[in-house]
Structure formats: C-alpha cells, structure tokens
Design goal:
This protein is an alpha+beta fold. The chain has one helix and two strands. A two-stranded antiparallel sheet has the order 1-2. The chain starts with 12 loop residues before the first strand and ends with a helix.
Length: about 50
C-alpha cells in the first residue's frame, strides 16, 4: 500500500531524512524531518541509551 495517498491534501510534505518516506511535516519545516516510524525508532534508541 502506498502511504503517500493517505496524507492530507495541502502543502508538499517533507521526506524523512532516514528512509525517504513522506512525513506529516510541510516541506518548508526547518531541520531534519522524520516519518512517524523513524521518529518512534529514534525515540526508542534515545530512551534506552541511559
């Protein structure tokens, strides 16, 4: 299934800097953008790092 079809219409969405999937953030958002999956994985990594 293509997740791009499930995003709401509006400004172009930024691609995830890790996997390239579309994020929930607009392309104009500054900084590194992550998709929900990579965002969750990064949270898990930082939570377990002590």
């Amino acid at each position: 299934m293509d997740d791009r079809t499930e995003l709401p219409e509006g400004p172009p969405h930024a691609d995830c800097v890790l996997c390239g999937e579309p994020t929930e953030y607009p392309a104009s958002r500054p900084g590194a953008t992550l998709c929900p999956v990579c965002e969750w994985q990064e949270g898990q990594r930082s939570a377990c790092s002590g």
